[in-house]
Design brief:
Chains A, B: This is LacI family DNA-binding transcriptional regulator. Chain A is α/β, with parallel strands linked by helices. Chain A has 12 helices and 12 strands. Chain A folds into 3 domains: about 5-50, no CATH class; about 60-150 and about 280-310, Rossmann fold; about 155-280, Response regulator (Rossmann fold), CATH 3.40.50.2300. In chain A, the strands form 2 sheets. Chain A has a 6-stranded parallel beta sheet, with helices on both faces. A 6-stranded mixed beta sheet of chain A has the order 7-6-8-9-10-12, with helices on both faces. The structure holds a DNA duplex.
Chain lengths: ~325, ~325
DNA sequence: TTGTACGCGTTATCAT
DNA sequence: ATGATAACGCGTACAA
C-alpha cells in the first residue's frame, strides 16, 4: 500500500494538513518543520496520488495526444517537440495510438486537462459530446471544426514550391504524393498543385505515392519509372515520401530540383541537395501548447478558431 | 462542470447509490429503473470520473507504455499489437515518449495499473523505488533486472541466420547493424555473430549501420560500397536496417542471400526476396500483456523472471 | 504556526 | 429494491 500524507504526518508527529502544506512549500509552515517533513517524505518514498488531487482540484496536469498513426518520421519529430514544450509548461504528455474517439473518451474519464489531435480529417474528428467537455486543439489544415486548429497552410507551401521550380527554369513539374486518400492535408497539397500549375501555365503530372511512408513512395516511383521518366522539377508531398523518391534519383543529377514538404532537421542529413518547405516543427509545437494551455487556464470554451502558421522555404546543400 | 452520479440521481428522483448500481448493471436494481437511469445518464452525457473510481477501487484500468524512441517501423508495429491486446484484456494503453524514469514516476502518480517498458539497457532501467510500487514488464533481451523481461533471444536468431547462410553455401558473411551503442539488444546480436561465425569457421565482417534507422543504414552502406563490395551472405540487424541495405542491392542478384532480424508483416511487401528471423510481433505483444495482467490481478511482487520467446525463420518471396 | 473539518465523485456495506 | 453512509487521499477555508 502506498504511503499517504497521513503516514508521513504520523511519522513526523504533525497533522496531515501540515504535511500537505509543507510539501507544496506553503509559506504557512516553518522552514524547520518543512525540511523535516520533506526529508521524511522522501525517505518514505511518498508518491502523491494524482487521483485524489485531481478530485479536489479538478486538475491533472496531464495532456493527451491523439495520434493514431505512429509512423512517419516527420510527425514523430513534431511529437517530440510537443512533449518538450508541454513539459516546460508544467504538463505531462501522454499519447494514445488508439482510435481517436475512444482515446478522447478515455482522456475525458481520466480527467486530463486537455487534448491535442493530429488531425487527418474525418477519421480524426472528435464529436461535440466530447469536445464540449475538455479543451482541444488540432494540428492540420483549416476546416470546419468546433475546436481550434493550427493551420499549416499546405497550399501556401505548395505554391512556394511551384514558384521555386519555375524560377529555376522548370516548365514540367512532377508532384509525388498520396492521391487517393481522405487525409485532408494530402488533398489540399494535391489540389493546390493542380490549380496553381494551371494558373501559372506549367505542365504537371501527379504521381501517386500509394501512401505516406518511405517504402510506399519508393515502390510507387519504381513502378512509374518502368514506363516513364521523372521531370527535372520534382515536388514531394512529405519528408518520408521524399526519402522514397530519392532512392531513384542520382545524387549527381544537378539538373533536377527537388522540393519536399515538411520542415524538420532531418533534411540536413540527406546527401542529395534538396529544398524543403514547411513550418518548423518547433514552431508548430509551441503554438499548439501556447493555445491549449491558454484555453485550459482561462477555462474558456473551445471555439472554432483557425490559427495560421506560415511555411518557409529552405535549401539543404549536399553534405 | 461535468455531470455526476448525483445529478443523474436528482433527475431520476432516486438516490445516487442506486444510480451507481444501475450503471454497473447490478442485479440489485429493477430492470425498469435501470433502463430509466441508463437512458438519462446517456442523455445527460455522463462521463464517469476515473479519479474518483480509482481512489476507492485502487484501479485505473490503464497501462503506461514507456517508449522513449518513437521511430523504427518494427517497434511501431509491436506497439500497435500491444495496444490491441491490452484493449482485449480490458485496459487502456497510453504511451509516454519522455525519459523513462520521469514517465514511470508520472504513471505512478496517475495510479496506472501497470507499466510496460521497451527496454534498451541502462538508459531505460527503472529504479526499485518505482518498480516496488507497480507491476512492470520489460521487452528486450535477458539481463539482470528487478522485474520480469520478455527475452526474444537475439542470439538464437542470429545463429539461425548464420546457419541458413552456411547452408546456402556462403562462406563469407557480412553483418550490418549498429555496432557502437549501449543498446543491449544490438550488442547481443553483434557478439553472437562474432562468436558463432568463429565457431563455425566462416569469415565475417561487421559493418556499422551507424544507427537503427533506414536512413542511417542506407548512408552507411553507401560509404562502405565506395571501397569494398558486399559478400553474398548478408545479415541485417533489423527490418529498418534491411530497408536501408536494400537500396544498394540489385533485386535480380540471386546470388545473394539476405536475412534480417525482426518478424513483422511488412517483410511481405518487400520486392527483393528476403529471409527474416524473429519472434512475431503478435506473439511478443500477447506475452507482454498476459504476464502483466496476471501480475496485476494476482497482486504479486515484480520478480526478476525471464520469459523466453523463440524466433522463427521465414522466407519472403519476390512479390 | 498548526490542526480540524468538509468536500471532491465514486464504490461498497449496511439499513431500511 | 432502494437509500444512507463511510471511506478512498488530498486541498483548503477556517478555527485554535
Amino acid at each position: 500500500m502506498a504511503v499517504t500524507l497521513k503516514d508521513i504526518a504520523v511519522e513526523c508527529g504533525v497533522s496531515y494538513s501540515t504535511v500537505s502544506k509543507a510539501l507544496k512549500d506553503s509559506p504557512l509552515v516553518t522552514e524547520a518543520t518543512k525540511r523535516k517533513i520533506k526529508e521524511k517524505a522522501d525517505k518514505m518514498n511518498y508518491i502523491p496520488n494524482n487521483s485524489a488531487r485531481s478530485l479536489v482540484s479538478n486538475k491533472s496536469h496531464t495532456i493527451g495526444l491523439i495520434w493514431p498513426a505512429v509512423d512517419r518520421v516527420a510527425i514523430t519529430t513534431l511529437a517530440t517537440h510537443v512533449n518538450e514544450a508541454l513539459k516546460q509548461a508544467g504538463y505531462f504528455m501522454v499519447v494514445s495510438i488508439d482510435n481517436p474517439v475512444r482515446a478522447a473518451s478515455k482522456f475525458l474519464e481520466l480527467r486530463f486537462d486537455g487534448v491535442i489531435v493530429f488531425d487527418e480529417g474525418e477519421s480524426t474528428t472528435l464529436p461535440e459530446k466530447i469536445t464540449n467537455n475538455i479543451p482541444v486543439i488540432a494540428y492540420g489544415v483549416a476546416r470546419e471544426l468546433p475546436y481550434p486548429i493550427i493551420n499549416v497552410h499546405h497550399n501556401w507551401a505548395m505554391k512556394q514550391a511551384v514558384d521555386l521550380l519555375i524560377e529555376k527554369g522548370h516548365q514540367n513539374i512532377d508532384y509525388i504524393g498520396e492521391l487517393h486518400t481522405n487525409d485532408i492535408r494530402q488533398i489540399v497539397k494535391q489540389e493546390t498543385i493542380e490549380k496553381y500549375c494551371e494558373e501559372k501555365q506549367v505542365n504537371y503530372r501527379l504521381i501517386d505515392s500509394g501512401g505516406l511512408t518511405e517504402m510506399a513512395a519508393k515502390q510507387a516511383v519504381k513502378r512509374f519509372l518502368k514506363t516513364e521518366t521523372l521531370h527535372d522539377g520534382v515536388i514531394c508531398g512529405s519528408y518520408d515520401i521524399a526519402m522514397g523518391v530519392l532512392h531513384h534519383v542520382d545524387e549527381l543529377d544537378l539538373q533536377k530540383t527537388i522540393v519536399a514538404y515538411d520542415n524538420i532537421k532531418q533534411f540536413n542529413s540527406i546527401e542529395t541537395p534538396i529544398y524543403s518547405v514547411g513550418v518548423p516543427a518547433e514552431e508548430i509545437a509551441s503554438s499548439l501548447v501556447k493555445h491549449l494551455t491558454r484555453s485550459i487556464e482561462t477555462g474558456s470554451e473551445n471555439n472554432p478558431e483557425v490559427i495560421d502558421l506560415y511555411p518557409s522555404l529552405q535549401f539543404h546543400e549536399k553534405k
